[in-house]
């Protein structure tokens, strides 16, 4: 995997892919969950992300205890596995073993990277003030990695009902982005 600047992490998430979130509990056990509810909050200085992880998820406890996670973006080839990861719990399942995912150590957090995915974003919790009320965590990316040599680069997008779209053609409207030239380099 190749390091990717945290100041450009918004480009990985602004298209709205379904993601996976890894955590590592205090006892060292890793977990992974599926997440569709996330958003970019700030581009840079520092970059900030928002995501919904609720107390119904086993991952919630590790995120609360450690303040760390990794957001991993699966390729379209991982569609079935991504759904299955989101339909079982680390409470009673070793999901890394069950789904044959390859973990590797992150640079800045204890949660593992997943080499199977096309990007990994190491995050620290930056703000918990909306967690009790809304299960909304504010995360600050610390480091990011991409897998540019992975054959399948298309991402998945949940339509909210168990159906998904896969990335289609990319069109460029850069010449019309007259107010936002700084985001095109
Ligand atoms: C497509 C999909 C999207 C999901 N999005 C979210 C989400 O945004 N937030 C959330 O808390 N759970 C979400 N879930 C549910 C969790 O992935 C599920 O509760 C998961 O099994 C939690 O794993 P854990 O108990 O090991 O933490 C989603 C599940 C699927 C299949």
Automatic annotation (TrEMBL):
The UniProt record lists the keyword Flavoprotein:
yes
Q: Which cofactor(s) does the record list?
A: FMN
Against SUPFAM superfamilies, the record matches this protein to: FMN-binding split barrel
Q: Where is the Flavin reductase like domain?
A: 11-165
Q: Which domain of life is it from?
A: Bacteria
Keywords (alphabetical) are: Flavoprotein
InterPro entries, per database record: Flavin_Rdtase-like_dom, Flavoredoxin, Split_barrel_FMN-bd
Q: Which GO terms describe its molecular function?
A: FMN binding; oxidoreductase activity, acting on the CH-NH group of donors, NAD or NADP as acceptor
Annotated family? Belongs to the flavoredoxin family.
- Could you identify this protein by its name? Flavin reductase
Q: What is the source species?
A: Acetobacter oeni
């Amino acid at each position: 995997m190749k390091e990717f600047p945290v100041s450009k992490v918004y480009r990985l998430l602004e298209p709205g892919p379904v993601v996976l979130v890894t955590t590592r509990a205090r006892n060292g056990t890793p977990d992974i969950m599926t997440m569709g509810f996330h958003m970019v909050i700030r581009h840079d200085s520092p970059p900030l992300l928002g995501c919904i992880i609720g107390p119904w998820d086993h991952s919630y406890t590790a995120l609360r205890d450690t303040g760390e996670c990794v957001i991993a973006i699966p390729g379209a080839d991982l569609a079935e596995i991504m759904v299955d990861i989101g339909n079982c719990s680390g409470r009673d399942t070793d999901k890394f073993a069950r789904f044959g995912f390859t973990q590797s150590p992150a640079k800045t957090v204890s949660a593992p990277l997943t080499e199977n995915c096309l990007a990994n974003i190491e995050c620290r919790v930056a703000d918990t003030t909306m967690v009790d009320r809304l299960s909304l965590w504010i995360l600050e990316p610390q480091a990011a990695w991409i897998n540019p040599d992975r054959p399948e680069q298309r991402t998945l997008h949940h339509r909210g009902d168990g159906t998904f779209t896969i990335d289609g053609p990319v069109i460029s409207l850069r010449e019309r982005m007259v107010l936002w030239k700084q985001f095109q380099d």
